[in-house]
């Protein structure tokens, strides 16, 4: 497709302000070319010589650990060890007994679904790419930057935001969920601080990982897709945060890149998914891993998928003044310092193009033969 052609198709799609849901409602039977992703090099099937007969006794296994936070009461060291192992390798784990009420989680997912399933006219006033607006409904934050668009719409909230700016469907549950998730994020940062051998308040207070007091929430809606093999719900990326807490519904589709293969993060009722973001990989000087993940497009027969991701990062004035670099005791530093504003500006301008934003801030290594 010629460049100018692609740009005019992106623009025409964006101008509908109705997102992917609008395409689906209009009955598209084929995925438009702007959403076509190149074939994925990691998606190669396992060769038949490695196939084992299915084991009838096997429990549905997942590589992604499920960590019971209630265990903290009597085995803090064991809990820290579990969190450390996950943060240093997979960069992902799920948590149960996290203290966020199940009804609030259910209501959050229902609210996001309700908003997205309102008529296009009700959603259109919220559709915006203006970064000055704290609440923005949009399809693909990187629509005009990424190599391919993804089969997903998002209501993005930078909280706290004035209540009247939040769509009525999401006013109650979503800000409350974000507040609760922030409390959980702070507890997880304590465990991660201890996992680095530091005092529990280090990452939040000394390193300033939650400075500014805000939280950014991406409320995603993945409509069923007529040709899911041609596109993705979210392209491969790592997160622009210190830490992300994600609530997903029961549909599934989130995958993590583990040893060159995509591994499912299966929905676990009541659980929240936690992952290390790019900024914590930087601050921990590569001790913790910000691992690439993606969402496959929802199959045509499935219900729409809904998720709500809370990104913990510096907000407000602190985002442009505080510089983050590797913790000084973790030598030698592998990254230069960066402000949240500079990091986010680079991340957003680049879009989800399959490359890590962290590479931009990495210092040349002393064992690099080129220097
Ligand atoms: C994200 C993300 C996954 C999902 O918002 O960064 O990876 O399941 N979301 O929606
Ligand atoms: Ni992500």
TrEMBL record:
The record's listing under InterPro entries reads: DIOX_N, IPNS-like_FE2OG_OXY, IPNS-like_sf, Oxoglu/Fe-dep_dioxygenase_dom
Q: Which organism is it from?
A: Setaria italica (Foxtail millet)
Q: Which residues form the Fe2OG dioxygenase domain?
A: 213-316
Q: This chain belongs to which protein, by name?
A: Fe2OG dioxygenase domain-containing protein
Lineage, opening ranks: Eukaryota, Viridiplantae, Streptophyta, Embryophyta, Tracheophyta
Family, similarity comment: Belongs to the iron/ascorbate-dependent oxidoreductase family.
Keywords of the record: Iron, Metal-binding, Oxidoreductase
Q: What GO MF terms are annotated? A: dioxygenase activity; metal ion binding
């Amino acid at each position: 497709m010629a460049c100018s052609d692609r740009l005019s198709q992106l623009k025409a799609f964006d101008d509908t302000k109705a997102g992917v849901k609008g395409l689906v409602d209009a009955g598209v039977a084929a995925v438009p070319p702007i959403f076509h992703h190149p074939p994925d090099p990691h998606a190669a099937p396992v060769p038949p010589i490695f196939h084992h007969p299915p084991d009838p006794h096997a429990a549905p296994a997942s590589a992604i650990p499920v960590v019971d936070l209630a265990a903290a009461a009597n085995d803090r060291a064991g809990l820290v060890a579990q969190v450390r192992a996950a943060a240093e390798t997979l960069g992902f784990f799920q948590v149960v007994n996290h203290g966020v009420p199940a009804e609030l989680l259910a209501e959050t997912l229902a609210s996001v679904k309700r908003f997205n399933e309102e008529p296009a006219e009700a959603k259109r006033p919220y559709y915006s790419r203006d970064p000055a607006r704290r609440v923005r409904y949009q399809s693909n934050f990187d629509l005009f930057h990424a190599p391919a668009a993804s089969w997903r719409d998002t209501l993005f909230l930078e909280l706290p935001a004035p209540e009247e700016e939040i769509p009525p469907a999401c006013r109650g549950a979503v800000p409350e969920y974000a507040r609760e998730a922030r409390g959980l994020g702070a507890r997880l940062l304590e465990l991660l601080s201890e996992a680095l051998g530091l005092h529990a308040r280090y990452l939040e207070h000394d390193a300033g990982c939650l400075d500014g007091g805000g939280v950014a929430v991406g409320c995603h809606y993945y409509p069923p897709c007529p040709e899911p093999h041609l596109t993705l719900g979210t392209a491969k990326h790592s997160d622009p945060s210190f830490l992300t807490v994600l609530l997903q519904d029961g549909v599934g589709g989130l995958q993590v890149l583990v040893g060159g293969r995509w591994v499912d993060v299966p929905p676990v009722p009541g659980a929240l998914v936690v992952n290390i973001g790019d900024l914590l990989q930087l601050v921990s000087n590569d001790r913790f891993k910000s691992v690439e993940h993606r969402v496959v497009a929802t199959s045509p027969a499935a219900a729409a998928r809904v998720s709500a991701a809370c990104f913990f990062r510096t907000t407000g004035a602190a985002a442009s003044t505080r510089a983050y670099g590797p913790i000084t005791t973790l030598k030698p530093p592998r990254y230069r310092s960066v402000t949240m504003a500079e990091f986010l500006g680079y991340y957003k301008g680049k879009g989800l193009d399959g490359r890590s934003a962290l590479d931009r801030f990495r210092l040349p290594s002393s064992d690099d033969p080129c220097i």
